């Protein structure tokens, strides 16, 4: 039996193609899955375009997120017919992932999809929404509440940003959205943003301490932006840093930490232990509004994946690209 998959190979040049594979080419795993849907994250775009060395074994199917039905299981946590979700754990980097009709995965990477979330909605959320939720949980664990003050979201029209704006709003926070897309202000207001600022206000090197503007922030941009975000965070505030869309450098000062008691919390979604994943997905099941998801998503098919990778890298995509398998 064959199945369709995006395959990245080096032969000798780096190339991504849509290919027919035999089922015996599936990698090792104690759970076999018919993929229902996947999604295209920034990291998948980096993998497909080879802009960053995301893929570390060849040939490999990218796709760090998937939802599918179990077709074979040697694990007592899962039975045939279960709907499962996978985010990260090196899948799509060192183990073949979701941009294919079939997958073979380790059961310890999987959780059951909460019943309240449909597979397409789950992939609209994907690692982006799950990371936004983890970032919000990080701010909550710091003690921030809607009464603490405004929360800034950078990269606001991106996948993580869109979810952060929408989920924070649902939780009652006043959200300031930082974006470079003047044409998308209406979209951000629809998601719930109360204020919008131009991301260029934050993208150049700034003063070590700036006028205090927000109690907390979710930053998917890094670099100068994150330094400026920290410099303008209110006394005792918290910034959850989860991304590097501007860059992975962090050339700042310790002033916000030592003079304003600001906390910088790192947020990783990839190697997150199962209890954190289950907490994040059950919070998402409570908070997510299917109508908002429909507004955030664009559906594509496997044969449109490769052409969309450059658009993601160039920051031309708004919201989420869901791949219906
Ligand atoms: P997207 O490409 O969907 O969004 C990124 C957004 O960042 C863009 O839409 C744009 O928003 C903004 N942006 C792009 N380039 C720049 C720039 N040069 N300077 C400032 N802002 C810029 O990506 P995702 O939302 O999926 O991911 C965002 C980041 O988070 C990525 O770096 C990704 O690798 C990381 N990530 C990390 C995870 C983790 O586990 N820690 C998990 C998931 C993602 P706008 O036009 O509105 O300004």
From TrEMBL:
InterPro entries assigned to the protein according to its UniProt record, in alphabetical order: Acrylyl-CoA_reductase_AcuI, ADH-like_C, ADH-like_N, ER, GroES-like_sf, NAD(P)-bd_dom_sf, Zn-ADH-like_protein
Domain of life: Bacteria
Domain Enoyl reductase (ER): 16-323
Cited PANTHER family: ACRYLYL-COA REDUCTASE ACUI-RELATED, SHORT-CHAIN DEHYDROGENASE/REDUCTASE
Name of the protein described by the UniProt record: MDR family oxidoreductase
Protein's organism: Wohlfahrtiimonas larvae
């Amino acid at each position: 039996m064959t199945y369709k998959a995006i395959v990245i190979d080096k032969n000798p040049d780096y190339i991504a193609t849509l290919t027919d594979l035999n089922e015996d080419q599936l990698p090792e795993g104690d759970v076999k899955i018919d993929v229902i849907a996947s999604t295209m994250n920034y990291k998948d775009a980096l993998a497909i375009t080879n802009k960053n060395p995301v893929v570390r074994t060849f040939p490999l199917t990218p796709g760090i997120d998937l939802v599918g039905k179990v077709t074979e299981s040697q694990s007592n946590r899962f039975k045939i017919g279960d709907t499962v979700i996978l985010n990260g754990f090196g899948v799509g980097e060192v183990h073949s992932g979701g941009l294919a009709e079939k997958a073979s995965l380790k059961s310890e990477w999987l959780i059951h999809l909460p019943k309240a979330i449909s597979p397409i909605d789950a992939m609209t959320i994907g690692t982006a929404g799950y990371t936004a939720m983890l970032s919000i949980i990080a701010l909550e664990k710091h003690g921030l509440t809607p009464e603490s003050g405004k929360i800034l979201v950078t990269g606001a029209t991106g996948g993580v940003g869109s979810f952060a704006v929408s989920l924070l709003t649902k939780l009652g926070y006043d959200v300031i959205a930082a974006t470079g897309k003047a044409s998308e202000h209406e979209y951000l207001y629809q998601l719930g943003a109360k204020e919008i600022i131009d991301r260029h206000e934050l993208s150049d090197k700034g003063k070590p301490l700036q006028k205090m503007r927000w109690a907390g922030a979710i930053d998917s941009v890094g670099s100068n932006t994150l330094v400026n975000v920290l410099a303008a965070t209110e006394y005792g505030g918290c910034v959850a840093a989860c991304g590097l869309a501007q860059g992975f450098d962090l050339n700042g000062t310790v002033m916000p930490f030592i003079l304003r008691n600001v906390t910088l919390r790192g947020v990783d979604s990839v190697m997150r232990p199962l209890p954190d994943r289950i907490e994040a997905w059950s919070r998402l099941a409570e908070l997510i509004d299917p109508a908002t998801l429909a507004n955030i998503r664009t559906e594509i098919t496997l044969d449109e994946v490769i052409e969309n990778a450059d658009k993601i890298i160039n920051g031309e995509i708004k919201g989420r690209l869901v791949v219906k398998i």
